[in-house]
TrEMBL record:
InterPro entries: CoA-bd, NAD(P)-bd_dom_sf, Rex_DNA-bd_C_dom, Tscrpt_rep_Rex, WH-like_DNA-bd_sf, WH_DNA-bd_sf. GO terms for biological process: negative regulation of DNA-templated transcription; response to redox state. Belongs to the transcriptional regulatory Rex family. This is Redox-sensing transcriptional repressor Rex. The lineage of its organism: Bacteria, Bacillati, Bacillota, Clostridia, Lachnospirales. Keywords: Cytoplasm, DNA-binding, NAD, Repressor, Transcription, Transcription regulation. GO terms for molecular function: DNA binding; DNA-binding transcription factor activity. Residues 16-55 bind DNA. It holds the Pfam family CoA_binding. Homodimer. SUPFAM superfamilies: NAD(P)-binding Rossmann-fold domains, Winged helix' DNA-binding domain.
Length: 220
């Protein structure tokens, strides 16, 4: 089956498999059956088998999955088998917090942080100095950038995103609370913590009315 046919729901579940398998690896677990994995992950074994069958299976009947192999293969499917360079535009509270976080663990390396505020110029976050945005175009020309993270105020986000597209950026991790309206050549992943909080608020308000199912676990 070609990757194009794989549903976005399956792709959304892959990072969770990757995380669980990583934990198993840390605990020196060599092999695991879909049943055992299903108990740990609180999803059905058939869901796991179905999801992994999209990529060719990886397991042997009655023998289970080789944890390291499956972890590596899912990592490759997710594109985590090579270092990906990331830049951050907007070095305020959120931009600096993200720059301080260890995304190297999953292969993302912050190599540039940009802002317009001259008071931030030269300040280093985890060893990376904040630069002024007027150097951004040249920086993109000089480096292979895989992902641009957008942590600027909402008003600036669309125009900066458009510029980034013009300069050849093909993946934007957008934290600004606005839709970016770029061409289909650019992958955009929006992250909105307040929307997550709103759904938590909904769950709190409606708890007990609906059973918390396996399905909702996997959609978190
Ligand atoms: N997605 C989420 O869950 C989430 C959570 C918190 C904040 N946000 C959003 O993230 C953004 C940043 O929030 P914050 O709290 O860090 O704000 P902040 O004011 O601390 O930081 C914004 C930074 O962007 C810089 N900036 C402004 N215009 C710029 C430009 N043209 N080029 C480069 N840098 C520019 C500012 O100088 C400032 O340093 C806001 O849009 C906010 O709404 C999203």
């Amino acid at each position: 089956m070609s990757e194009r046919e794989i549903s976005s729901a399956v792709i959304r579940r892959l990072p969770r498999y990757y995380r669980y398998l990583g934990e198993l690896l840390e605990n020196n677990v060599v092999r695991i059956s879909s049943k055992e994995l299903s108990i740990r992950m609180k999803v059905t074994a058939s869901q796991i088998r179905q999801d992994l069958n999209n990529f060719g299976g990886f397991g042997q009947q009655g023998y289970g999955y080789n944890v390291e192999y499956l972890h590596d293969e899912i990592g490759k499917i997710l594109g985590l088998d090579a270092t990906q360079n990331m830049i951050i535009i907007g070095a305020g509270n959120l931009g600096q917090a993200l720059a301080n976080y260890d995304f190297d663990r999953i292969g993302f390396k912050v190599i540039g942080i940009f802002d317009i505020n001259p008071r931030l110029e030269g300040l280093a976050v985890r060893g990376v100095e904040i630069q002024m945005v007027d150097t951004l175009e040249q920086f993109i020309k000089d480096h292979e950038i895989h992902v641009a993270t957008l942590t600027v105020p909402k008003k600036q986000a669309r125009s900066i995103a458009k510029q980034l597209e013009t300069w050849g950026i093909r993946a934007i991790w957008n934290f600004a609370p606005t839709d970016l309206h770029l061409s289909e050549d650019v992958c955009v992943k929006n992250v909105h913590l307040d929307e997550s909080l709103m759904t938590l608020s909904y769950n709190l308000r409606h708890r007990g009315k609906e059973k918390y199912s396996y399905k909702s676990y996997m959609e978190d």
